[in-house]
Write a structure and sequence with these properties.
The chain is an alpha/beta fold and 325 residues long. The chain has one domain: Rossmann fold (3-Layer(aba) Sandwich), CATH 3.40.50.720. The chain is built from twelve helices and eight strands. It starts with a helix and ends with a helix. The model has no long low-confidence stretch (mean pLDDT 94). The protein binds NADP nicotinamide-adenine-dinucleotide phosphate. Keywords: Oxidoreductase.
Length: 325
């Protein structure tokens, strides 16, 4: 009797939690468009896991030819093979891209320009969140979060932008985060000439600042591409169960607080990706550019979007990538 009632109690608790979670998941926004992308070419950076992987599946199912631009090409080929199992007519390609090396970015762009006379959608999705105290730098010696999340994508976009302009109407989606509101421009920290101010502003300071750089890039890029037929969207996917925070160490006791918060606020990637789809595909966003999106809606950033700082970041990025733009 005791075992039976305990088992029933445990079953009812887990069943209730499951139902509550399903209800919660249904509250989050989803992109409703059924739009097809037949004949279009989409490039997604970082599609071996998390949001990029789910987005690749979605765009392939809409008929787009999707290029997985990834650092781990073995993992990317496995992702492509799995998608092909479910969708045998899928058009998929894998191209090596290590955003922490500007040489790799250039090689990737050359391959893409050779293979694809048309590029309609570029999703700057790949990202890392690495505490600055780990002291990891890019191949060229720049701070790793800034280098991968912003600078590598800045160069990739520059190298592909003429092809996107020639393929209009086209779209560029920059995956940022609401955490950009906690970021700041630590110029010397970015360049790697001084340690990033992580100690003072928490272990995610460099990540938040790289995501602010994403927002500044989106604003300036939209301005540069105005009237050229290329729309630019900056996106926060919300808080998702992915591998992003794999380098963050959380003390054991903190899990007691984190688990209930995660239960209520963390999304599976298939839900987090909805705002990316809204910006990459939907008819609703077709005539918009230069805005920030969250939960499939425009979101007003609370960050200081100062024009002078936006221009300074653009100039620094050109200098570090050795380009004029
Ligand atoms: N998850 C969240 O809660 C959350 C919240 C806000 C914003 N975001 C943003 O969402 C985007 C996608 O992240 P995710 O959550 O899906 O994380 P994820 O599962 O860790 O995926 C990140 C992807 O980026 C790739 N990547 C990492 N370093 C790279 C490099 N040097 N060159 C090329 N690719 C590299 C990873 O490839 P490997 O397999 O080779 O590592 C992986 O495919 C990121 O920009 C992130 O900042 C996520």
């Amino acid at each position: 009797m005791g075992i039976l009632s305990t088992s029933l109690g445990i079953g009812a608790t887990f069943g209730g939690l499951y139902a509550l979670r399903r209800w919660r998941e249904n509250q989050w926004e989803s992109c409703k468009t059924n739009r097809r992308l037949d004949g279009q070419v989409a490039i997604i950076t970082g599609a071996t896991s998390g949001l990029g992987k789910v987005l690749a599946e979605d765009l392939v199912n809409r008929g787009a030819a999707v290029v997985l631009a990834c650092r781990n090409t073995t993992a990317a080929k496995e992702v492509a093979a799995k998608i092909k199992q479910q969708c045998p007519e899928a058009l998929l390609d894998v191209v090596e891209l290590d955003l922490s090396s500007l040489e790799s970015v250039r090689k990737c762009a050359n391959i893409l320009l050779e293979r694809y006379p048309q590029i309609n959608i570029l999703i700057n999705n790949a990202g890392v969140s690495i505490p600055p105290k780990m002291g990891i730098k890019t191949v060229e010696g720049y701070e790793i979060n800034f280098g991968v999340n912003h600078l590598g994508h800045f160069l990739l976009t520059n190298l592909l932008v003429d092809r996107l302009i020639a393929s209009t109407p086209s779209r560029i989606v920059i995956v940022s985060s609401k955490l950009h509101e906690q970021g700041s421009m630590d110029w010397e920290g970015f360049e790697g000439t001084k340690e990033f101010e992580g100690g003072k502003r928490g272990p995610n300071a460099a990540y938040c600042s790289s995501k602010l750089a994403n927002v500044y890039f989106g604003i300036k890029l939209a301005e540069k591409l105005e009237s050229r037929g290329v729309s630019v969207y900056t996106v926060c996917p919300g808080w998702n169960y992915t591998k992003l925070f794999r380098y963050s160490s959380v003390p054991f006791y903190s899990w007691i607080a984190i688990i209930p918060i995660a239960f209520w606020f963390m999304k599976p990637a298939r839900i987090g990706v909805q705002t990316l789809i809204h910006c990459a595909v939907s008819e609703d966003t077709e005539n918009e550019t230069g805005l920030f999106y969250r939960d499939c809606k425009v979101y007003q950033s609370q960050a200081n979007l100062n024009t002078k700082t936006i221009n300074e970041l653009w100039e620094l990025s050109c200098k570090l990538c050795k380009i004029e733009w």
